[in-house]
Design brief:
Blueprint lengths: L2 H6 L3 H18 L1 H4 L1 H8 L3 H29 L1 H21 L4 H15 L2 H9 L7 H9 L4 H16 L1 H7 L1 H14 L12 H4 L6 H32 L3 H17 L1 H11 L1 H20 L4 H29 L4 H30 L3 H28 L10
Length: 401
């Protein structure tokens, strides 16, 4: 398989449109986390409240991913994405002009979940245009839109320091509107768009054991990535007393590893199998998070977080190399369900770190728990691989899982 194969297959404008849509949506989804140190300063939040406020958009994104997953299979990813971008304008306007009370902030966070649900439309758009042997790479490219976190963590604190965090949310509407126009022009639903079914039919995939395997694995890889992305600025400020802008720079460095290596994870998974790659990556996650739990110097902890985020990002690509091998027609719904599980995992990460910091007085406890979760995910993967080996027919033996 070569990158030139990608040019000969599918629809490049739709793949690019999927990436842009996911990228700007991801930026907006994690914007409360990027601005977290400014928001928590204004509201005087406790450690557990800090974890909750940045986790609310992640949790609501899980719910909305199910909604957008059904819509993607029923009306197509293009219409679903366009609708999602229009709804995303609401919390940005609310946060820009209002957002003066904590209940308002929670409500804004809930609505920002629609941006996080973009995954359920962006990934199927890319998947349906490309053959099985290119799934990992194509979906990795679309999924690399989680690099939107970079823009949030790099520019959000800098702009907020000068014009305030409310105005940052208003300013975020500009890239959203630009991407909306580009998406409207470039994106096109694939001919393989399945015929709409009654809604209850889509939920039959919940009876499949593989759905739950993918949910558990993605809740660790994606959940770990987005959860840490949202909380690390608070961690760096609290633990290492960095300035708000410098903390954002350190977070950006860590996030870059996970974002840019997601397509690499998909590419390698196409060649050696997503399951095999995930085995090594989950070991890397467990070891790096245990290293972080020792709370070493700022440079060493950043190095370990970089490695951990790299493994999580590649793990995201590996999981979604596996999903289309098992589910093709139901890819929209399965993407929504698995994506929702990833969001739920992301909700727990900042809450674990914030709550255990408040209880134990140290962030060390929370990172030890996250390392343990990585080990548990490795055991789940082992069970899943045994199941896949038994289930594969002779004709499917060449599929790299």
């Amino acid at each position: 398989m070569k990158f030139t194969d990608l040019k000969k297959s599918g629809h490049a404008p739709s793949l690019l449109a999927s990436f842009l849509y996911f990228d700007v949506s991801f930026m907006i989804w994690v914007i409360l986390g990027a601005l977290g140190v400014f928001i928590t300063k204004d509201f005087g939040l406790s450690p557990s409240q800090k974890g909750l406020i940045v986790a609310v958009p992640i949790l609501s994104g899980s719910f909305f991913r199910l909604v957008l997953g059904v819509l993607t299979d029923r009306i197509g990813p293009r219409k679903t994405a366009i609708s999602g971008m229009l709804v995303t304008i609401i919390p940005l306007v609310w946060g820009w002009l209002f957002g003066r009370t904590l209940p308002e902030l929670y409500s804004i966070g809930i609505l920002l979940g629609v941006a996080g649900a973009s995954f359920a439309a962006a990934i199927p758009m890319a998947s349906r245009w490309y053959p099985p042997q290119l799934q990992g790479l194509a979906m990795g490219i679309a999924g690399a839109g989680n690099s939107g976190t970079l823009f949030a963590t790099l520019f959000g604190p800098r702009i907020a320091e000068n014009i305030g965090w409310h105005n940052v949310m208003g300013l975020a509407m500009l890239p959203l509107l630009i991407v909306f126009i580009l998406y409207f022009i470039m994106a096109k639903d694939a001919p393989s768009q399945p015929t709409a079914k009654p809604i209850f039919e889509y939920f039959k995939v919940l009876k499949q054991r593989d759905t739950w395997y993918f949910c558990l694995l993605y809740s660790v890889t994606f959940g770990g990535f987005v959860g840490l992305s949202s909380f690390l600025s608070i961690f760096f400020v609290d633990q290492y007393e960095l300035s708000m802008v410098t903390a954002g720079d350190f977070v950006t460095l860590c996030v870059a590893a996970g974002s840019f290596f997601r397509p690499v994870g998909g590419y390698i998974a196409d060649r050696i199998g997503g399951g095999r790659l995930l085995t090594f990556l989950l070991i890397g996650v467990a070891l790096s998070m245990f290293g972080v739990s020792q709370l070493p110097s700022i440079y060493l902890v950043t190095t370990m977080l970089f490695i951990g985020m790299l493994c999580l990002g590649m793990g995201n690509g590996a999981v979604f190399q596996l999903v289309p091998q098992r589910f093709r027609e139901e890819i929209g719904m399965v993407t929504g369900i698995v994506g929702a599980a990833g969001g739920i995992g992301g909700f727990f990460v900042p809450n674990i770190l914030g709550s255990l910091k408040q209880i134990s007085g140290t962030y060390s406890t929370g990172f030890i728990v996250i390392a343990g979760i990585g080990v548990a995910a490795l055991l789940v993967l082992t069970l899943a691989q045994l199941s896949w080996r038994k289930a594969l027919s002779p004709n499917e033996a060449s599929v790299k899982m």
